[in-house]
Amino acid sequence: HGGAGATGRLRDQVLQAATQEIADLNTVNDKRIGAWQARWLADTTGAEHDQVLRTYAAARAQIEKVRTSARGTVTGAAVTQLSPQAGTAQVIAVVRVQQTASSGGASTVSNRYVAHLTRTGAGWKVSLLTPG
Q1: For residue 67, is it left (φ>0), alpha (ψ between -120 and 50) or beta?
Q2: CA 20 to 30 Å from 40, out of 7, 21, 27, 60?
Q3: Residue 9 neighbours by CB under 8 Å, 6+ apart
Q4: Which pLDDT does position 2 carry in this prediction?
């Protein structure tokens, strides 16, 4: 039971981290643009972290131009791969994104993602997020 219990707890940790981080990566407030970069950087590692750094200026310009905020909510997620020894995991997730323009117009879209997570000294972080 010890091994199965430990694996179950680890799977729960991965799922909890992935759910929060994927929601964060689909959320931005056009009135607090600087805050989302710090959150996105804190939620990522590896290639995804590098991507956030590389695209920050262009993303910021686009958000300022369209003046739209988005709030992501993970509506379903599952751990599909977990390697405790390697410190890696994969999660599939469905995200509902509510977009609100500064003019008041709103829309909602749903997206599916495959997230790869890596265990870091600060916990599980998204290392790659791709449409799924």
Answers
A1: left
A2: 7
A3: none
A4: 59
